[in-house]
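Record format v2
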Amino acid sequence: MSESSLRKATPGRLVAISVTLLILLSPFLWLLQMSFKSNDQILQFPPPLIFTPTLENYISLWHSAFSASFVNSLLSASLSTALALLLGVPAAYALSRWAGRGKHALSFAILVTRMAPPIAFTIPFFLFYRWIGLLDTITGLVLVYTSFNLPLVIWMMQPFFDTIPASLEEAALVDGARTRTVFTKIVLPMVTPGIAATAILCFLYAWNDFFFALILTRTNARTAPVAVVNFMNYEGWEWGKIAAGGSLVMAPVLIFSLAVRRYLVSGLTAGAVKG
Amino acid sequence: MKNASRKSSITSSITRRKLLKASAASAALAAFPAPLIAQTKPFAGVTLHGASFQHRFFTLLQKYIPEFEDQTGMKVDLQLSSFPVYNQQANLELSSGGSAYDFVNVTFILAARWVAAGLLANLDEFTGDANLTPAEWNPKDFVDGAQVPYRDAKGATYGYSWEGGAMLMGLSRMDLMEKKGLKIPKTFAELQQVCAEINGTDGVSGITSFQLHHWNLPPYIQGFGGNIFRKPPGDIMPTLNTPETIQGIEFYANLLKSAPKGVLTYTEDQARQSLLTGRSNIFIHSSSWVTPILLSDESKVKDTSRVVRSPAGPVHDYPASNSQGLGIPKNAKNKKAAWEFIKWALSPDISMRLVKEHGHSSICRRSIITSEAYRKLNTVNGQDLGALYLEVLELPGKGENYMAYRTVKEFPIVGDVLNKAFEQVATGQLPVKDAMNAAQDQAVAALRRAGTQL
């Protein structure tokens, strides 16, 4: 917020902003306070707002299978994001620079996999993975997430490459640079905001996925969202652990988003406006 | 030529030192009984893969599994997941012809579907073979009512129950009731009266319940002579708008007027907590949810509580019950090893140890439930909880199997419709007749869409 806009912040606006923030943040704050309560305190009626906080839920999560699931989530989300970017960014660049007749048809074909709901692919993936032995493996999850994120990367990155004038690359080529150098040293730095924004969306998709992880994993590659559901037992729900797990699941996305927020706004808007 | 060269290489590899080593090993083997032990472990080297949802039974069983592994030589890989996750994964695995599991939990609500679809192995082949099952294991010792879901139309058995749930009534504030001159309700009419009179006294609600209406409601519907289906399992035409069903739904909706605000969205935990803290007087649910008012350290109402049979309707006295079983998938790779595990896990010995060493009471072996040790542990304030549990668990096996509605594969679809319709009635969105007429049409349409012939 700039200095001039701060000056314009009337009491009415401040109240409106505070109320909006409260509404937006209240589910998260409620979850967070629950994670520091015991199961008995959580079920008390009316719910106590002042209580002695306990780290019991986080400690028991640390000692449970949840920690391994958390690592599985980190691995599958990070690796699939990296792989999707590694394959998708050059593909988007190639599509951007290609002036052939089939360009639009190819772009559309790439997007088709994102059009069907994930459930349509689940059973084929399950049967195929069982056949080739990829069920309940991180590799299996990474491949699934990559296959879904790849079209997103290509479609998001293409407008960014379109905005870079071809003359810039031609000048570098005239100066003796090789095509690979032009791409890595000149083009890529210019689309960094786009890559950051795309990476966040890819990471979010893989990190928040529940359905594929539910069907394609068992115990070895179980991810954090499925592990959180595992606290909903037949004999009762472990509310404290669910809240602590939910809070922890949100943390990496929050950290990742904050780390790249500088690029995020420009990345999410630049392609759309200039493309 | 090849054979000759191989022979010479083998001969050259047998040195004097190796021969001496072999002789020493033979002498050692003869001197110690290790080979005999190995011979008594027919499943040595086998890894048994099993899956279930998380439950105290398995947490306790896991402590004994090393003993079983030691006896048999096999390794047990038991995968435990939450209830919804397990059901989803096991259903997919079995229905797609998978062989990842050697034994599985046969969840009550999925039992009929799995049995009808031929996804499970017939366990009579194991119990009928004296070499595989000793007489003392006695399959008939399992409470008949708990075994009903695991049998097909011809009576063949596809699972043995490890856990039973029997609907009982818990009353937390007998002191308040006595002050008002109220007795323990034995009929629906008395229940209605007690709930209404207690509600609001000392800040106590008359009754509590939770959001799984298709578990709570049917005993009232059946109590008035209605049902969920016309005559399950043979005739599964929904009967959600019969006068009897409507009467049951109306009764239950009225009953919940004496419940805490928000009861329609209560989870089982919330309902139990409101009973344990004395905020609600009555809770009617499976024994393991109700008996903590007498047994749990959390209970603040131990001195003023009672656990009794749930009230009878004007037409029927049908308290709900359920059970969970262990079975073997038809495509399992190690069926005999899996049966060895099931036989061991549900043996009288392990069952008794669970009762004596851990106070685990929701088992389904009649000989254990009626034993002195069990009775001693489960008699609190003069109330024989075991006898109550057994009485209710047995009922569906006597005469009409009134729990058949819940074990047919069509129940989950109709149950969802019933849940939504009841919410409309209880919140006053629709008059009961309109809601149930609409529910009937929706249930029939949903079943037809799912390919059911009606």
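The first helix of chain B runs from residue 2 to 13.
Chain B is about 50% helix and 15% strand.
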